[in-house]
Amino acid sequence: MYLSRDVLISLIKILSVIALAVVLFFVGLMIGYGGIGDGSPLHVFSRALWQHIFEFVQF
Questions:
Q1: Looking at the 3D structure of the chain, how many domains does it have?
Q2: InterPro entries under this entry (predicted)?
Q3: Domain assignment of residue 14, given as a range
Q4: Which of 12, 21, 24, 35 could be 31's S-S partner, Cβ–Cβ 3.0 to 4.6 Å?
Q5: Contact residues for 43 (Cβ-Cβ < 8 A; gap 6+)
């Protein structure tokens, strides 16, 4: 399948924006939990923390 150069450039731009948004989301999580909160910035990725959050939010 042959993609034109313009379509390929557009796909690269879209994927790079999505990747940048994901990276910035995780950086924001680390800043919010470690910088503003009282925890370690890397602790935001622990499974136990997210289980606690989901248990807290359940109805």
A1: 1
A2: RNApol_su_b/EpuA
A3: 5-58
A4: 35
A5: 33, 34, 49
